[in-house]
Write a structure and sequence with these properties.
about 35% helix; 8 helices; disordered N terminus; RibonucZ/Hydroxyglut_hydro; seven-stranded mixed β-sheet; alpha/beta; MBL fold metallo-hydrolase; single chain; NDM-1-like; about 325 residues; 15 strands
Length: about 325
Amino acid sequence: MKAPFLISLAALLASPLLASELVMFCERPLVAQPVAENTWMVEGLTEELSTSNCGHIGNQAFIATPNGVILIDSGSSPHFGEALKTLIAQHTSQPVRWVLNTHHHPDHFFGNTAFDKAQHLTLATTRDLMTRDTDALIDNVERLTGRSLERSSVALPEVIEAGDITLGSYPLTLYAMSGHSGGDLVIMDPATGVLFLGDMGFYQRAAATAHSPSLQQWQEELNDLRALNATIAVPGHGPSAPSATIIDQTIDYLEWLDQRLSDVASEGLGANHALAVELPDTFSTIALAEYEFTRSVMQLYPRYEARLLWGAPQ
């Protein structure tokens, strides 16, 4: 951590708009939790999309810099994005100038249009997936949350390449991953040691695997991220925690899931046999463990059969 830099930055940002009342969304207050100096996260509910949560299930984070706010993920709707904008203004007088979208799932980028004065950025692979899937994702969000979304209300980001970047005068390092969704942006803040994992990391909430190209690849990429030795991490779902803690829990779950599916497929048994197991005690306290395990078997098991029984390429 660069203490002189952080002290001077804090002085520059010493005049946020004071919170006069709670910022509400879906009859719940939104709370910005401090993660590091001038860095906050807004934690979503560890649930699936539903009418009761109005889609707020993913995390957002923001960094207040001398030249403007860097927002990491914008939430599941323009309406949520507006509430998030109000919340951010209670912590800094700087406007949101950049929005970084970590991947193409709707709970992470459907709030973009609320930040119409900001520059929206993501990886090329992620933008391609957004372009391909946005209409289907809107249909699903509307079906599950009961909230209407205009097709024109989804703002697609511009493309940015992985590597060292500077937004205003603020340096970040971007990593291009693909283990969770096929196009996953991970962001490292060298000034604070915070690693913004997006859905490459889940903590105290079982990992969603539907769009993973390979559970083995996901684990390998997480091992690469562990080597960064970040101080603290913000996952896509669940609370912030030491980086190694979040990465290890995600790897442990993916490793067990991969082994379970491999073992049953190698025996020539069907998906029902894969489901017929008690989850290990290690995962018994993780939210949505049974739900996500069942979804993973239904979505991924045919791939394991094809590879392990019929020799199809992975």
